[in-house]
Amino acid sequence: MLTVAQYLNLVLDSVTELPPMELPISEVNGCVLAEDIYARWPLPSFNNSSMDGYAVISADLVDASESSPVILPVVDDIPAGFKSLETLHSGQAIRIMTGAPMPAGADSVIPIESTDGGSESVQIRASIDLGSCIRHEGEDVKAGDLVLGKGTFIGPRQIALIAAVGHGSISVVPKPRVAVLATGSELVEPGTELKFGLISDSNSFLITAAANDSGADAYRLPPAQDDEDKLIHILEDQVHRADLIVTTGGVSMGAYDPVKAAFLKLGTAEFHKVAMQPGMPQGFGSVGDLAIPIITLPGNPVSAYISFETFIRPAIRKMRGLGTLQRPLQSATIRGELNSPVDKVQFARARFIEGGQVEPVGTGQGSHVLGGLAQADALIVIPMGVDRIASGDEVRVINVTGGLA
Ligand code: AMP
Ligand code: MG
Asked: Distance (Å, rounded) from C-alpha 248 to C-alpha 259?
C-alpha cells in the first residue's frame, strides 16, 4: 500500500510539461506563457484625448465661466482613428473624440460637458488646467518593456495586454488534450431508459468537466464495454489524439476487469493500492508508440472524483506548465462528526457554511453517494492515525471550486 504522497509522485513523474506551441491569442485563454512578452510600442502609443471635447490652449480659457463663456471657432474635427492636419493656434478649438491623437499646438482638452457642443464655434463655460484630459504616450507601458514573463498564467486581463502591445500570436504551453473513457458493461448514455441492472454513465461527464475546469481540453468518449479487444481498439485510436487518457472503472479486484489486461498489451501500467478512502485502487502507465500517459480511476463516481482531484488535477497542471500543482489546504472548524479509518487518509465531502466552518454533506461517506457529492464544495482531509473527528474540531480542508489559474 502506498501513501497518497508516494502515489502522487509516481503519477507526476509519468507526465511532462507539454512542448510550447505558437497560438493565435484568441486561443490562449487559460494557457501558460512559454516566452517573455515585450511591448512592440508604448501604451498609449501617442498622446491622445481621454474625453470627448475640444482640444484647446488652456491659457485661452482662464476667464471662461458659466456667466461669461469664451467663444472659439472650431477649425477641425478629429474622430478616433484620424489625425488632424491642422496646427491649433491661440484662439481656436478643435473638436476631438476620446482616443483621437492630440493636434499639434493644443495643450489640453475641455470636456464637451463644459461647452455647448457647437460644431462651427463652441461656447466654453469653464477654465481648465494645463494638460487636462490628455493620456500621454508611454505613461502606461514603454516601448520594449517586458510586460509578461514566461510562465505567467494567461487569462482575459493578460490577453488584453498582449493584444495591446502588438502580438497576434504567442508561444504558450498548450492545454493538454485529455480523452476520458468510462468502462463498464453496465453503462448506458444518460437520457436513455434503464434496463434493470444497468446504470447511467456519470463518471465520464464528471471527469471531462473536472478536467476542463482544471485547464485541460478534455473530451468524452462513449462508454466502453468490459471487453479487452474493444478497449484495445478504442485506446489505439486515442493515442494519436490525446496527450493524456483517463479511464474509470475496471481496476478493482473484480473478475471482469479487462482494463488492466488491455493496458498491459498496449504499453506499460502499474496498479497500486493507495492508503486513501475513497479511491484505494489506482493505476497509471503509458500506451502506444508515443507512450501517451494513461491514468485509471476507480469506477465509483465519488472515488473517481476524489482520485481526479488528488492525482489527475495536479498532473494536468504539470502538463500545463504551472508551478503550483495542488490546491491549498486550509483550516476550518467542523460542525458535525466523522469517523475515519486509522490506516488511510479520508477525503470527506463537505460544504462551507457561515463563519468559516464546514459541515459534512450527504447521507453517508460511501463512495457511491453522488447526492452528497453534488452538495459539496469542500473536501475534509482526515489524516492517517485519526479515527474520529468531533464537532468543533479544527480540520484541514480543500476548497474544490474554481482554480483554473
Ligand atoms: P468498477 O470500478 O468498474 O468495479 O466499478 C465500481 C462501481 O462504480 C460499480 O458500482 C459501477 O457500476 C460503478 N461505476 C463504474 N463506472 C461508472 C460510471 N462511468 N458511471 C457511474 N458509475 C460507474
Ligand atoms: Mg466495472
From this structure: 9
Arithmetic mean of pLDDT over the chain = 95
Give the rounded percent of residues in the chain with a pLDDT score beyond 90.
92
Residue nearest to atom 10 of ligand 1 (CA): 300
Q: Record the pTM.
A: 0.91
Ligand 1 site-directed mutation target among 180, 187, 297, 373, most atoms within 8 Å of CB = 187
Q: How far apart are CA 377 and CA 397, in angstroms?
A: 10
- Helix and strand totals (H; E) in the chain: 8, 28
pLDDT band at 253 (very low <50, low <70, confident <90, very high): low
97 phi, psi to nearest 5 deg: -105, 160
**pLDDT of amino acid 362:** 77
Q: Which ligand is nearest to the CA of 301?
A: 1
- Determine the distance separating the centroid of ligand 1 and the alpha carbon of 299, expressed in angstroms: 4
All structural domains of the chain, each given as residue ranges with its CATH number in brackets, are 4-18+175-319 (3.40.980.10), 30-42+144-173 (3.90.105.10), 48-135 (2.170.190.11), 329-399 (2.40.340.10)
Q: Which residues contact 196 (CB under 8 A, 6 or more apart)?
A: none
